[in-house]
Every structure is written in structure tokens, then in C-alpha cells.
Amino acid sequence: MIVFVGIALAILILVVVLWMLLTRRLREKYAVLWLIIAVSVLIVGLFPGLLAGLTAFLGVQVPSNLLFATAILLLLGVSLHLSWELSQVEEETRRLAEESAILRTQLDRLESRTSRLEGQRPADDVD
């Protein structure tokens, strides 16, 4: 029964990720990770003996320990990647705020210069 749940979960993940890609709700660089997870779960679901063989090969006592260790490493990787992305976004936001402040200052200078020039214009030249 658990094998069918794993297979169903993998297929559900594949369908949802592909749907999100097609509707542009998920970017490709994030979808790759989810597709790898879904395919891995599907392979383990289709070939449950593979997990036992991998557990014996790596010297892990129980297959569930290998699954938990893999999940923890995966979560650490996702967390590190998202932290890196957040740092990139913060840097970009800071840069845009600085550029916006510079542009606002330039606009204020131009507006004050324009109003001064308009004030110096003779009254008969005004359209």
C-alpha cells in the first residue's frame, strides 16, 4: 500500500510542477529541484528494493534513516539556495533604492531650475 502512495505522490508532484511551469507560476530553476525529487520518489516507489540495496551499499542501518538523512540534506540545500536568492534580491533592492534616490534628487534639481528659469522669463514671451 505504501508503494502506491509513493507512486501517487510522485505523479502528483510531477503534474503540479508541470502545471505550475506551464502557467508561469514557477520558474524553471526552481522546477528542476522539484522534478528531481518527484522522479526520485517515483523510482523508489517503482523499485522499493533499490532503497534497501542503496542502504546496504552505504552502510546505513535502516532504510528510513537513509530517507530522513536525504530529506535533511535536501532541506539544507533548499534553505541555502533560498538564502542566496534572498541575498541577491536584497542587494538588487538596495541598488534600486539608491538609483531611485539619485534620480529623485536630479528630478528635484531640474524642477527647481525650470521654475527659476520660468520666473526669469519676461511676461510678453509667455504663450
TrEMBL record:
Keyword Isomerase found: no
Coiled-coil residue spans: 86-113
Residues making up the signal peptide according to the UniProt record: none
InterPro entries according to UniProt: DUF2304
Transmembrane feature ranges: 6-22, 34-60, 66-84
Origin: domain of life: Bacteria
Keywords assigned: Coiled coil, Membrane, Transmembrane, Transmembrane helix
Short name of one Pfam family: DUF2304
Protein name: DUF2304 domain-containing protein
